[in-house]
Design a protein that fits this description.
Layout lengths: L2 E5 L5 E5 L4 H10 L7 E4 L5 H13 L2 E5 L2 E5 L7 E2 L1 H4 L9 H8 L1 E5 L12 H9 L3 E5 L2 E5 L8 E3 L5 H11 L5 E5 L5 H12 L3 E3 L5 E5 L7 E4 L4 H14 L2 E5 L7 H9 L3 E4 L3 E5 L10 E2 L11 H10 L3 E5 L9 H7 L3 E5 L2 E5 L8 E3 L3 H13 L3 E5 L2 H6 L3 H7 L3 E5 L1
Parallel strand pairs: 2-15, 3-14, 6-7, 10-11, 18-19, 22-23
Antiparallel strand pairs: 1-23, 1-24, 3-5, 4-5, 7-9, 8-9, 11-13, 12-13, 15-17, 16-17, 19-21, 20-21
Helix pairs in contact: 1-2, 1-7, 4-6, 5-6, 6-7, 8-10, 8-12, 10-12, 11-12
The structure holds uridine-diphosphate-N-acetylglucosamine and phosphoenolpyruvate.
The site of phosphoenolpyruvate has 7 residues, from helix 12.
GO molecular function, one term: UDP-N-acetylglucosamine 1-carboxyvinyltransferase activity
Main location: cytoplasm
Pathway: Cell wall biogenesis; peptidoglycan biosynthesis
Length: 418
């Protein structure tokens, strides 16, 4: 099993190219199921989750080809409407085939994703929304079986929690439904706007994406698409935090700074100089020790839960005490015991991590437990004295494209080992 070996060696410096966003690419690729016309996606990141998605689409009968960062999907001949446990268990976003398959073919069977390390992550909002659109749904033997007589029907759907995945699934179902669907209390993440833009380029009628009320007028069929995936705001934020933690200066290119307001504001509060243009962002820590910041995660435009672990690592080496509160997932502090193994001073109190800064971290063997927890251990390893060995980096490979190569380009001493 691959591991990362990191030798803490001072400030990161240089320029890094940001990849397309995992969380935009996965729903976009699933949207390829909505049409029999060819779909071409560019700026698709080379990630384990993307490979899983393409395997899933292939298993359903779609023809898929990949040339560098370009993915072609031809879903004209779907032969199978079952998303099996083996694939769904490795990637929860597999649930996003449900809306498109049901909308286009009137039935689908998808394995229940089940819980995962960061929380229970139920899919009740996905299912109740589809039921309001006329789907009959049964959950049996670990599978969701859904069917609809005729077409899905537009509906008024109020989601009592803000869910990115449910908003995406229901939006994809609604584009081919008969009549108008209104999604209220919708998630407002930039990846939802990217999906809506892509669907509209295929002939869908979606308005309001990026607000909490999305209105979708169903159409009978969708056209081909050619869409470039939004840059990854979480990958960008991770490199910026790594630069801040090491006292360095890093410029991220092919980025989307307008998706990073909450993160930029916290980096500035930590003492970093942050500058940006349309598609680049640069952080300069000017050799200074960062200051601890308080953070509370929230749905967009609040502070993203996917950046929480990286800021816990930053707070550990900053000056002062910072309180990091997680409000989205009930078990998203698994990086804390691993950071403690490296000498971090953190107390867990309910859903908050009280991070006492100023720790001199020491390299250790640590275990990645989920995607962003892994990123926080890598950041800690870059700052720690001596060698850090991060085990189980298959989590990291789900969401970061060649992180060791990109960090190496910024001067880090990091290598993938067996
Ligand atoms: C592939 C992808 O885009 N993943 C992102 C997506 O995950 P995902 O779409 O799974 O996350 P959600 O926004 O759905 O989850 C938010 C909260 O709602 C709860 N919930 C969700 C659905 C539901 O039917 N019932 C329910 O109770 C979840 O357990 C969680 O507590 O948004 C999360 C929150 O920004 C991010 O951390 C993930 O990186
Ligand atoms: C939690 C994440 O992803 P997923 O929803 O794919 O598990 C993440 O990207 O941090």
């Amino acid at each position: 099993m691959d591991k990362l070996l990191i030798k803490g060696n001072g400030p990161l410096n240089g320029t890094v190219r940001i990849s397309g966003a995992k969380n935009a690419a996965l729903p976009l690729l699933m949207a390829g199921l909505l049409t029999e016309k060819p779909c071409v996606f560019t700026n698709v990141p080379a990630l384990r989750d993307v490979r899983t998605t393409l395997a899933l689409l292939g298993q359903l009968g779609a023809r898929v080809s990949v040339e560098a960062d370009k993915v072609n999907i031809d879903a004209s001949e779907i032969t199978n409407l079952i998303a099996p446990y083996d694939l769904v268990k490795t990637m929860r976003a597999s649930i996003l085939v449900l809306g498109p398959l049901l909308a286009r073919f009137g039935r689908a069977q998808v394995s229940l994703p089940g819980g995962c390390a960061i929380g229970a992550r139920p899919v009740n909002l996905h299912l109740s929304g589809l039921e309001l659109m006329g789907a009959k749904i049964e959950v049996e033997s670990g599978y969701i079986s859904a069917h609809v007589d005729g077409r899905l029907q537009g509906a008024n759907i109020f989601m009592d929690m803000v869910s990115v995945g449910a908003t995406e699934n229901l939006m994809m179902a609604a584009v081919l439904a008969e009549g108008t669907t209104i999604l209220e209390n919708a998630a407002r993440e930039p990846e939802i706007v990217d999906l809506a833009n892509c669907l509209n380029s295929m002939g869908a009628k979606v308005s309001g994406a990026g607000t909490d009320k999305i209105v979708i007028q169903g159409v009978e069929s969708l056209n081909a698409c050619h869409h470039s995936v939004l840059p990854d705001r979480i990958e960008t934020g991770t490199f910026l935090v790594a630069a801040a933690a090491t006292g360095g200066k890093v410029r991220c290119e092919h980025a989307a700074p307008d998706t990073l307001d909450a993160v930029i504001s916290k980096l500035k509060e930590a003492g970093a100089k942050v500058t940006y243009g349309d598609d680049w962002i640069e952080l300069d820590m000017q050799g200074q020790q960062p200051k601890s910041v308080n953070i509370k995660t929230a749905p967009h435009p609040g502070f993203p839960t996917d950046m929480q672990a990286q800021f816990v690592a930053l707070n550990c080496v900053a000056s002062g005490t910072g309180v990091v509160t997680e409000t989205i997932f009930e078990n998203r502090f698994m990086h804390v015991p691993e950071l403690q193994r490296m000498g971090a001073s953190i107390d867990l109190e309910a859903n908050s991590a009280v991070c006492r800064g100023g720790s001199k971290l020491k390299g250790a063997q640590v275990m990645a437990t989920d995607l962003r927890a892994s990123a926080s251990l890598v950041i800690a390893g870059l700052v720690a004295q001596g060698e850090t060995l991060v085990d189980r980096i298959y989590h990291l490979d789900r969401g970061y494209e060649q992180i060791e190569v990109k960090l190496g380009g910024l001067g880090a001493k990091i290598q993938r080992v067996q």
